[in-house]
Write the structure tokens for this entry.
Amino acid sequence: MKALIVDDEPLARRELRRLLTAFPWVQIAGEASDVDEAHRQMQVLQPQLMFLDVQMPGGTGFDLLAQLDRTPRVIFTTAYDHYAVKAFDVSALDYLLKPIEPERLATALAKVRGAVAAERQKEKDPTAPDSSRDERMREEPLDQLFVRDGPQCWFVPLREVSVFTSEGNYVRLHWGKARPLLGRSLITLEEKLDPRRFFRANRRQIVNLDYITAVELGDGGRLHVQLRDGPEIEISRRQARVFRARSTI
């Protein structure tokens, strides 16, 4: 599994590298000392795991996550314990205080392996090696997003979002009872979504096909779809033709 170490302290990066030699299945693909460098490294290396400091020059680890389209699994490494609650609010796998103890690192990496195993089980492909997934990562659609809306932050599994609604240059996510606002346009987001799961219903909305419970004929060739635990969405006349064609395949 490819990993990126993001920390502004060279000694801290060196010590973490030393500790990780006990875990040969973790391949340290690169290091970064600030948010901008880490963002560039993420685009090039596409790591599956990131060891992330909180306070760094040019921004925090939370700022970095908000800039990423594709977020890896995250283990926070920091000298400050008061960020722990926020770290777990964004679904970090663990939160390690410096100096990092070998036993705590082992526990954190066990959580990583557990998360990988659970993901493979969901994909019904328990035998796929990490390297295979890593090689396919660039071509795969997004499966989660880091969303920061005001003081709140989330890792949002996109399979759990029923509707994406455009609000100017932002997108409102219907995710359970939450309605976080994502700082990008609907067109930009649509390019990264799985077309097998998500469908452009009209100019302002993309729906999750897994959440559709009923389809009714509307006026002028339009369709109305009812979403599970969600609103009724109108599919435009043009998109209704595409929807019907998909439904007959």
Summary: The CA atoms of residues 18 and 74 lie 19 Å apart. The radius of gyration is 20 Å.
